[in-house]
Amino acid sequence: MLHTRICDLLGIEHPIISAPMAGTSTAELAAAVSNAGGFGMIGSRAQPDPEWLREQIHTARELTDRPFGVGFISSAPRMERAVEVAIEEKVAAISHSFADVTPYVSAAQAAGIKVLAQVQTVALAESAALAGVDVITAQGTEAGGHTGHNGTLPLVAAVIDIAGGIPVLASGGIGDGRGLAAVLMLGAEGAWIGTRFVASLEWGGPDWVRQKVTEASIDDTLLTRVYDLAGAAPFPPEIGHRVLRNDFTDTWHGRDQEIIARRQELQDQIDAAALAGDHRIASVNAGGATGLIDRVEPAGDIVRRIVAETEAILRSRPGQVLGGKD
After folding, report:
1. pLDDT at 325
2. What is the 3-state secondary structure (H, E, C) of 271-293?
3. pTM score
């Protein structure tokens, strides 16, 4: 049976955590992942809405009696009240991304809540370790949506080296059992998975985005800032945005100053396209794992298949490469 320290820490069966994708990792997805033995995460909206978040937590509790958590874009303004709601509701874990986690650790841990820090650099991991977080998630550039510029495999290994015994999760480009097996062999305690759960029935975003994720190749993603610049998004400048390439990115990628000068015009185009489901202009967050996805299915089935694939690989592959028998 697949079991690591993260399973004991979070009270789960399988070392799979669903990424708290902002506003679209809703109660339904979190509960489905938790019911399948993983750890589901609700993603707070990019513009924090404390009452929406409280409703999501209550809904998740109606759908599952298993542990789940809430994740925040911690660089977003006016987030403090939403974080307080997650603490008041005593979710099992809270994750913070894109900001120094230090101010958020003590209050959550005092309430018996585990604190996860998602980091994109070794420097951020060192800061998180000093802050006393319970888990560090090393997010590689292969991740969908907002991410850094370091590759998943070397970043995970480097973060493990400095974590001082804090469990490390791997994030970025993991969409099947091969990816989970690989990061477990690096020493990670589990995988934080986003893009694969976009193509789940329970994901809270639009159907046209699900469809594009199942159709795209690994060659179709791009790390860009075009949408963040147009929308003045609250992310640090060293953070990029991995999306599917489209007409808009082909036209505007690398033209940063022009985007800023025409910000309102371009944002109006993006907003209209998102409402219309026009993928030629609207953004589709997707990581490298998109090339491994060919269908939409229940989140629980995704968890169970990744676990089964990982167990099969870990049983057979080491013996093959070391010259033994299957």
Report:
1. 57
2. HHHHHHCCCCCCCCECCHHHHHC
3. 0.95
Q: How far apart are CA 108 and CA 149, in angstroms?
A: 29
Residue 132 domain-assigned?
yes
Domain span holding position 217: 207-276
Within a domain: residue 285? no
Triad 6, 19, 210: Cα angle to 5°: 140
Domain count, the chain: 2
User: Which parts of the chain sit beneath pLDDT 50?
Assistant: none
Q: What is the pLDDT of residue 84?
A: 97
Distance CA 178, CA 146 (A): 23
Name the E strands within the chain: 16-18, 40-43, 68-73, 93-97, 114-119, 135-139, 145-147, 168-171, 190-193, 221-224, 240-244
The domain spanning residue 158 has which CATH number?
3.20.20.70
How does DSSP assign 41-54, residue by residue?
Answer: EEE--SS--HHHHH
- Distance of alpha carbon 316 from alpha carbon 166, whole angstroms: 29
In sequence order, the 6+-apart residues with CB closer than 8 A to the CB of 32 are 40, 63, 200, 202, 298, 299, 300
- Helix (H) or strand (E) holding 251, with range, is helix 247-252
Each residue of 144-182: b (16+ CB within 10 Å) or e?
bbbbbebebbebbbbbbeebeebbbbbbbbbbbbebbbb
Predicted local confidence at residue 48, as pLDDT: 84
Q: What is the pLDDT of residue 1?
A: 84
Distance CA 301, CA 9 (A): 23
Task: Give CA–CA dist 3/13, Å, rounded.
Answer: 7
Q: What is the pLDDT of residue 126?
A: 98
